[in-house]
Amino acid sequence: MQPPARPGFHRPTLIIGVGLFALAAVTWFDARSMTIRANYGMGADAASYFVAAFLAALGAGHLIAAMRPGIRAGDTDWAGVGWVMLALVGLIGSIWAGAGFIIGSTLLFAFTARSFGRRALPADLLIGLALSTLIFLLFNKLLQLALPMGPLERLF
Amino acid sequence: MDALTHLFQGFGAAILPVNLLFAGIGVLLGTAVGVLPGIGPALTVALLLPVTFQLDPGGSLIMFAGIYYGGMYGGSTTAILLNTPGEAASVVTALEGNRMARSGRGGPALATAALGSFVAALIATAGLAFLAPWLVKVAVRFGPWDYFGLMLIAFVTVSATFGSSPLRGLTSLALGLWLGLIGIDQLTGQTRLTFGVPNLFDGIEVTTLAVGLFAIGEALYVVSRHAFAPEKPIPIKGSVWMTRADWGRSWKPWLRGAAIGFPIGALPAGGAEIPTFLSYTAERKLSRHPEEFGQGAIEGVAGPEAANNASAAGSLVPLLTLGLPTSATAAVMLAGFQQYNIQPGPLLFVQHADLVWALIASLFIANVMLLVLNLPLVGLWVQLLRIPMPWLYAGILVFATMGTIAANPSVVELLLLSGFGVVGFIMRRYDYPVAPVIVGLILGPMADSQLRRALQMSLGDPMVLFQHPGSAIMIVIAVLALLAPFLFRGLARLRKEED
Known about the structure:
The complex is a heterodimer. By secondary structure, chain A is mainly α. Chain A contains five helices and no strands. Chain A folds into two domains: 11-65; 78-155, no CATH class. In chain A, helix 1 (11-32) packs antiparallel against helix 2 and helix 4 (100-115) crosses helix 5 (121-142). Chain B is mostly helical. Chain B has one domain. Chain B has a two-stranded antiparallel sheet. In chain B, helix 6 runs antiparallel to helix 16 and helix 14 (328-339) crosses helix 19 (435-457).
């Protein structure tokens, strides 16, 4: 079942290792730019330096681990992942544009359902609209949570 | 008996009708959300935090107690019927329980899990009530160095000691510590890693991180897989009730599971999965039917499920008495406490004694409510598993983001949430544990400030950590625990066999 191990590096581990080094570098430079000093003992930068060193050590560990065969992620439905991302973009875009909670959540609902293979976008939009309106009424009126207002929310 | 008097007073507060109502709502919501696939107790608590925003602290803490225990009961139902354990601690339950369900014994599997959880939670909550006052007396004498030592132990055991790979576990912890740096430093006012974004000044919210990693990460992971391996719940066939033989084979594993789970949960050692694995191994060794293990042995559900609940209740001991969360769920609970400016720790028992004891009493009440809810009504909860996957996950995402929007309606917060979702997806995909990230985020800044407080008191001399026997011993334990994975290779091998 396992394909023969390819020579060379295990790519995901390698990439994560490089990412850890990058994170360590960002943390290091951020710590160097700190100006407030403590009177005794450690300042606020000490923890940053420690975490940067820790991240770099783990990055090195990943580079070593990448030489051995690692976890092979199975088949992946990237289109599905893309639809969920689009669903989140729909929500964030709606909030950013001031279209409100209901429209944003409706898009989120319909696109997420689409990502799991549903092909009935209009129906899902309606279900999402009903669900998010219900949530809005429940939480905004009953529990007095401040959900973002848009044109639809002002109708209530 | 100091504890008994306090406990009776706690019960007095907890049985007020309004508090019973809160506990009941918590139990219902917790079970309903916990039963959904891929949602473990930590996410259940994180998702339902916004519901408690507007309540008074007492009521909402009591509701928490119900949500917490309810989420655990619900999680075992999913593990048995769907074989998608919502968290590492349910993996073992899924192992035997799902086999039982497949061979038409889903009813007894659910019953032994529910009864085992009840017995274990009862014992562990009693343990909490009697251990907590004693531990508080010890904890008030703790200096910052002692807290720092304790946190080191928690870091190491959560991430490295009991996971399948110390490298991946420590990487998760480092990510959590890194996220913990973000924001304004409490002691000096220095900003760290905020890159001039005002929304980051207050740091990363634990609930945003937990919901992003668990809910959005899980949705991304499931959608990436589900076209290739769709999961269907197994209908419960036959009787829900356990036979005489089932009872005979279950009661000892319950007690043993509770005995294994509570001490491990109560030590600041983290890792809810370790007691379940220990209990599973113990039951397999002690069983008169070892050949049934792997085919659906009831002992293999009863023991680990009891161990799981006992250790989860046990983890409330360090949370309440020391303010030290040792699991993802405890970390989210701590965030819930802080929402009301209640800081768990020894002082909590002095300043808010009535609140703590009402909470502990409510745990008992929630436990009884859950037993009543779960045994006869389990068929009802199972209906929730019939919601088609597209709507189920669409609904989960709407609720997950709603919580974040309600707490902090900003685009930056939602971008963070989505970013954590992508990170959670990558972590699931390459088998990085998620709990150390959350524990790292919440404990990292605490360890930082305890260490600096210790160094301020010693005028900068780091030897202060070794001059106090408590902290010296704890630092030694932490170092040993870091080295232990290499001694625990046997455990890793056991895991491989079961995967």
